[in-house]
């Protein structure tokens, strides 16, 4: 098998390429990385010197591809399937990439700030930074609320890379800063993502690891 994906089932950025793989039924060999295990960590650092996941290794083309968005772009370019996650139309592709960046930078990042703070020692937490992150999430929800008033998916009526990005971003963000009743369009979009079979599969595979997520630590 040419493609090997190094990832962790709980990591939100790893969910993006997993959804992409499943959408097109692209065969790959999964390698779960445990950074807490010395042997697993050492092996992974040979693939990804930064220690960041996910990392895709393509033995057939002798390429290593890092960063979740670039992995999906790579699959679209060299291992395309029936679901066009990165549109061939340039203008539409730009919209998809812009939405992908939005969910990564303005939903995923503040969500991870809150989660990361919960994992810090009590005397090393950053309450001000967490409140800034919560404000950023609420602002992002307001933007999505307007965007999703008349759309099924992130850029229209077709599921794309942007939805691969939105899926983990909104799933985890809702855990740390719930949508509540103020953002009904966000909730409807989130529910559609949850009902997508590929995303449902990713969540199911992550179930054994959810006990590691800091739900109630602050």
Give structural notes:
There is one protein chain. With about 220 residues, the protein is an alpha+beta fold. It is built from eight helices and four strands, in the order βαβαββαααααα. The protein has helices at about 10-25, 40-45, 70-80, 90-120, 125-145, 160-175, 185-195, 195-205; strands at about 5, 30, 55-60, 65. A four-stranded mixed sheet has the order 2-1-3-4, covered by helices on one side. The chain is globular and about 50 Å long.
For this entry, give a set of tags.
218 residues; alpha+beta; 4-stranded mixed sheet; 8 helices
- What is the tally of beta strands? 4
What general outline do the C-alpha atoms trace? globular
Oligomer: single chain
- The helix tally amounts to 8
Helix/strand structural class: alpha+beta
- Strand-residue proportion: 5-15%
Instruction: Write down the overall mean pLDDT.
Output: 94
Give a quick account of the main beta sheet: strands, pairing sense, barrel closure.
Answer: 4 strands, mixed
The helix-strand sequence is: EHEHEEHHHHHH
Radius of gyration from the alpha-carbon trace, in angstroms: 17 Å
Taking the alpha carbons of the first and last residues, their distance comes to 43 Å
Side-by-side strand order of the widest sheet:
2-1-3-4
Low-confidence stretches: none
Helix content range: 55-70%
Write the layout of secondary structure elements.
Blueprint: E1 3-7, H1 12-24, E2 29-32, H2 38-47, E3 55-58, E4 63-66, H3 68-78, H4 90-118, H5 127-147, H6 161-176, H7 184-195, H8 197-206
Parallel strand pairs: 1-2
Antiparallel strand pairs: 1-3, 3-4
Helix pairs in contact: 1-3, 1-6, 1-8, 4-5, 4-6
């Amino acid at each position: 098998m040419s493609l090997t994906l190094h990832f962790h089932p709980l990591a939100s950025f790893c969910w993006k390429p997993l959804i992409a793989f499943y959408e097109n039924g692209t065969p790959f060999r999964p390698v779960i990385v445990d950074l807490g295990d010395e042997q697993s960590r050492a092996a992974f650092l040979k693939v990804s010197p930064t220690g960041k996941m996910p990392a895709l290794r393509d033995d057939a083309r002798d390429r290593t591809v890092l960063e979740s968005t670039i992995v999906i772009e790579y699959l679209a370019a060299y291992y395309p399937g029936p679901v066009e996650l990165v549109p061939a139309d340039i203008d539409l592709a730009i919209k998809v990439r812009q939405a992908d960046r939005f969910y990564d930078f303005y939903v995923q990042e503040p969500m991870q700030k809150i989660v990361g703070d919960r994992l810090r020692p009590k005397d090393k937490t950053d309450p001000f930074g967490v409140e800034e992150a919560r404000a950023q999430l609420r602002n992002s929800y307001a933007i999505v609320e307007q965007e999703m008033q008349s759309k099924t998916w992130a850029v229209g009526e077709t599921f794309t890379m942007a939805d691969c990005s939105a899926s983990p971003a909104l799933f985890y963000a809702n855990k740390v800063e719930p949508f509540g009743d103020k953002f009904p369009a966000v909730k409807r979009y989130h529910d559609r993502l949850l009902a997508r079979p590929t995303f449902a599969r990713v969540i199911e595979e992550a179930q054994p690891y959810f006990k590691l997520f800091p739900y109630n630590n602050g």
